[in-house]
């Protein structure tokens, strides 16, 4: 359930008719619902009722917009960040440094320094090498930094191969069979406080079993570490819970997920952290677009050319992902069409042979489930600029990211005088 519904035949975001946003801000534009973000945050937290004192860190990569982060900060969420830029955003949005977890395989030296200087809550180390580098920086700063070791459990998350992170061949974490030795080696380093373990096996997970398998392996590792004399007080279970992209699809609920977590982790005696992204933000946003024109295509269905493109919403082009497409003012008529953007690539295709609301030039429509991995993956390809973002709250709305024009991008470019 989300807050994007028809009222008197017009699609609204909460109490705001989408045509009002299109008129004020133009299209394409991402539209987020504050009420949906808040509801998802609470449903996720409530789902963890069986877990003592869970720490929930929103995966900033899913939607790093400052206003979105602030909504979640107000819900008591921390942040899972994977770059200095995300760290800066999380702090700017009011998330306390101690509630920030820093993940990522390629944290650079300046990013490690930034994390230390900000006093973040935990570094999730993804390699032994990173651990030694962080330890050296920590010693230079005269501090001891809290760390968890991310392990690669070699579990197939059964999701799209490009967003699977927990198979042996993926770049993430350290191999489970070396984890205890690496943990012990890093725990001996002055400057590091090895306090826990972390796992994240992938995104858009449709079933709980791979997660349960991964968590089971993590539990066994905790036991092994403790038997070996190590201290383990924290475990980070990552994110990954999938969301429906098509009407009538069902996914495990946060409550089912939480019940599984409570069962599997009973007796671990650690503080658990979570890094949900998509499940919080995905269905809290749509990409509002306008049909530029329809074009006949031989004997086949017409091409409905919209003003949004793969540079604004990359998921269909990148992963062949499905996003429901609905007219803002549906007439009840249906048609079959190919939905494409204006970019000069065949890959700029949102859907082929899709049955959709009958729609034509000038009409508004939305791509649903665009609140996660939408605007954040945008580019300015074909010199289209960067898409704008709007946050709705009841009957009001605000632009929370300006549209960045091709002019503004050009302003950052220089032609050397010798040319
Ligand atoms: C380390 C880490 N944590 C959390 C997430 C968030 O995942 P999701 O948006 O699937 O919940 C990701 C992305 O998959 C990730 O790489
Ligand atoms: N960008 C991906 C998710 C990546 C998750 C990264 N940890 C998507 O749109 O589905």
From TrEMBL:
Gene3D superfamilies: Alanine racemase, Lyase, Ornithine Decarboxylase, Chain A, domain 1
Co-factor requirement: pyridoxal 5'-phosphate
Active-site residues annotated for this sequence: 344 (proton donor)
UniProt modified residues of type N6-(pyridoxal phosphate)lysine: 61
Residues holding substrate: 278, 315, 319, 345, 373
Binding site for pyridoxal 5'-phosphate: 240, 275-278, 373
Entry-linked Pfam families: Orn_Arg_deC_N, Orn_DAP_Arg_deC
InterPro entries (UniProt xref): Ala_racemase/Decarboxylase_C, DAP_deCOOHase_LysA, De-COase2_C, De-COase2_N, De-COase2_pyr-phos_BS, Orn/DAP/Arg_de-COase, PLP-binding_barrel
Pathway: Amino-acid biosynthesis; L-lysine biosynthesis via DAP pathway; L-lysine from DL-2,6-diaminopimelate: step 1/1
GO molecular function, one term: diaminopimelate decarboxylase activity
Domain Orn/DAP/Arg decarboxylase 2 N-terminal: 36-281
One of the GO biological process terms: lysine biosynthetic process via diaminopimelate
Enzyme class: lyase
CDD domains, per database record: PLPDE_III_DapDC
Keyword set includes Iron-sulfur: no
Orn/DAP/Arg decarboxylase 2 C-terminal domain ranges (all copies): 30-371
Role of this protein: Specifically catalyzes the decarboxylation of meso-diaminopimelate (meso-DAP) to L-lysine.
HAMAP family in the record: LysA (MF_02120)
Record-linked PANTHER family: DIAMINOPIMELATE DECARBOXYLASE (PTHR43727), GROUP IV DECARBOXYLASE (PTHR43727:SF2)
Quaternary structure and interacting proteins, as annotated: Homodimer.
Official protein name in the record: Diaminopimelate decarboxylase
Naturally occurring in which organism (per UniProt): Tsuneonella litorea
């Amino acid at each position: 359930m989300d807050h994007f519904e028809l009222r008197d035949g017009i699609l609204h975001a909460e109490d705001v008719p989408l045509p009002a946003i299109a008129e004020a801000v133009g299209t394409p534009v991402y539209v987020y619902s504050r009420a949906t973000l808040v509801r998802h945050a609470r449903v996720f937290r409530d789902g963890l009722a069986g877990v003592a004192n869970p720490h929930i860190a929103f995966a900033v990569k899913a939607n790093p917009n400052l206003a979105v982060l602030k909504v979640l900060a107000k819900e008591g969420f921390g942040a899972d960040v994977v770059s200095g830029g995300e760290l800066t955003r999380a702090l700017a949005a009011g998330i306390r440094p101690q509630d920030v977890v820093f993940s990522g395989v390629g944290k650079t030296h300046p990013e490690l320094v930034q994390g230390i200087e900000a006093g973040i809550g935990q570094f999730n180390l993804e390699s032994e090498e990173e651990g030694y580098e962080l330890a050296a920086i920590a010693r230079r700063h005269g501090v001891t930094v809290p760390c968890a070791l991310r392990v690669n459990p070699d579990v197939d998350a059964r999701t799209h191969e490009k967003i699977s992170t927990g198979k042996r061949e993926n770049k993430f974490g350290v191999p489970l069979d070396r984890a205890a030795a690496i943990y012990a080696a890093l725990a001996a380093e002055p400057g590091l406080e090895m306090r826990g373990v972390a796992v994240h096996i992938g995104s858009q997970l449709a079933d709980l079993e791979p997660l349960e398998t991964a968590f089971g392996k993590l539990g066994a590792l905790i036991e092994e570490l403790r038997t070996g004399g190590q201290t383990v007080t924290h475990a980070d279970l990552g994110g990954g819970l999938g969301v429906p992209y098509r009407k009538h699809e069902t996914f495990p609920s946060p409550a089912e997920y939480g019940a599984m977590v409570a069962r599997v982790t009973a007796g671990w005696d650690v503080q658990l952290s979570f890094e949900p992204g998509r499940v919080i933000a995905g269905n809290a946003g749509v990409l509002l677009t306008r049909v530029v024109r329809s074009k006949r295509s031989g004997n086949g269905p017409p091409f409905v050319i919209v003003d949004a493109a793969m540079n604004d919403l990359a998921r269909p082009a990148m992963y062949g992902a499905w996003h429901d497409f609905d007219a803002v003012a549906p007439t009840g008529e249906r048609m079959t069409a190919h939905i494409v953007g204006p970019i000069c690539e065949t890959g700029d295709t949102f859907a082929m042979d899709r049955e959709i609301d009958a729609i034509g030039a000038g009409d508004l429509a939305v791509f649903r489930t665009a609140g996660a991995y939408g605007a954040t993956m945008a580019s300015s390809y074909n010199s289209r600029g960067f898409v704008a973002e709007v946050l709705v709250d009841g009957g009001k709305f605000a632009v929370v990211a300006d549209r960045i024009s091709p002019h503004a991008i050009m302003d950052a470019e220089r032609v050397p005088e010798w040319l």
